[in-house]
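Journal club prep — side note

Before the paper discussion, L.F. wants everyone to see what a predicted structure for a comparable chain looks like in token form. Sequence:
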Amino acid sequence: MSDDDDLFGGTGETRTRLPEGDGADGYGSARRSGRSAGRSPSRSVVTVIGVVVLLIAAIAFANRDDSSSDGGDDGGGGGGSKAAPTAPTGEKPVSGKAGGIPSGYAKSQQGVESATANYAVALGSADMFNKARRHAIVDTVYTPTVASERKPALDKVYAGESFLARIGLNKDGSAPNGTTFVSRIIPVGTKVTKFGGGSATVEIWYSSLFGLAGENTENPVSESWFTNTYEMRWVGGDWKVADFKQKDGPVPVGRDQRASTADDMAKAVEEFGGFTYAR
């Protein structure tokens, strides 16, 4: 196992960034090697399934019930009727932010699920390729001890020319002219498997979009599926990440849909904001 493998296996980063066949890239073999616009129908099916994922995620979060929800508001405008099945449930969203990331979660199972989902989104975002934003994210989501230990190693990896070249970015981490860099995590659901004493273990199932939207790119935007397990700790009045591990899947069956053009993909990324808050 290479140094990069060890680093990314414990920091909460996804392993969906590098093309298959680069054994020491630290991201495993979840992503197939980049192909030109003339990719096969099966690849096209996999690429655009992210649209369906967004819909499924929205429905799942809208319909999710929780025994800890605040039952004071019946959602019926004072008429006494029960809320519709698709009405939001659970505790109100946090109002605070740290490093541009929602913070100040409740010390509850629902609170730790929300924290985990939002932290995973931040750690899998394109902001991780900018040093200032990366430091802000790491300081926000990790416990202080883990954050201080990981930042130097992460800086070394994200600034590595060979690493950036393998994923198609310029030496400064920017996307080549005529392309749009895409790195997003779309949570589908979360599950608390352990809770108590200021600690929790939370699993999050998600889809990851990663690649370059542009003509003739060798790293087109593709999607992968993972389940991450986060060890969370209650530190300084909020939930923080203490450790992490990842496994592939579950992976749904792809639908028979035509792949979008590079222009359409770039436009969608620019016009549709990323996921910012769970519940």
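L.F.'s comment for the group: Residues 3-62+88-271 form a domain with the Nuclear Transport Factor 2; Chain: A, fold (CATH 3.10.450.50). Keep this in mind when we get to the figures.
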